[in-house]
Amino acid sequence: MKLLFDFFPILLFFITYKFSDIYAATAVAIAATFLQVAISWLRTRSVPTMQLVTLAIIILFGGLTLYLHDEQFIKWKPTVINWLFGAAFLASHVFGQKTAIERMLSANITLPQPVWRRLNLGWVVFFLGLGGANLYVMSYFDRDTWVNFKLFGMLGLTLVFIVLQSIYLSRFMTEPSTKEE
């Protein structure tokens, strides 16, 4: 459900693009991201840092797209966001007591420290690779292909990565112990 909530602005961007153009889709994506942040705030009285960064980037790159009427800015947004997240995860690997992925997931799962570090580096590589894939698609394919990749390709790659990560993590999961009476 959270993944769907995170992809909500991208889905609305895609639908709007199919019925209108990239500029209307960009405006809808900006509004949807504002709505996403507002919903987070209303539900929890806090907004995750990743959502705030995404909002700032969509306002900047989407705003430039609309103001300058140049679609290249909105096409750069996924790369910038993914590379920023990759850099943040890498920085957490070097600085601080816990990695970014450990801070996000440690309330739900317990893993040995080396596994947290490998998992965090996996996310670094994933974010950097996804940003690079976006650059490749936006540079060598037409706009329609890029829009399809933005929704289906990036979502698909993310789901595949999460499944592979789950398979990897399953080796380190233990069953909770129960007391026999």
Topology:
Layout: H1 2-19, H2 22-44, H3 49-68, H4 72-94, H5 100-105, H6 113-140, H7 143-170
Helix pairs in contact: 1-2, 1-7, 2-3, 3-4, 4-6, 6-7
Low-confidence stretches: none
Number of strands: 0
Structural class: mainly alpha
Supply the number of structural domains. 1
Structure notes:
The protein has 181 residues and is an all-alpha fold. It has one domain (2-170). Helix content is 81%, strand content 0%. It has seven helices and no strands. The protein has helices at 2-19, 22-44, 49-68, 72-94, 100-105, 113-140, 143-170. The longest helix has 28 residues, at 113-140. 26% of the residues are buried.
Q: Brief overview, please?
A:
The chain is an all-alpha fold. The protein contains seven helices and no strands.
Descriptors for this entry?
181 residues, mainly alpha, 7 helices, 81% helix, globular
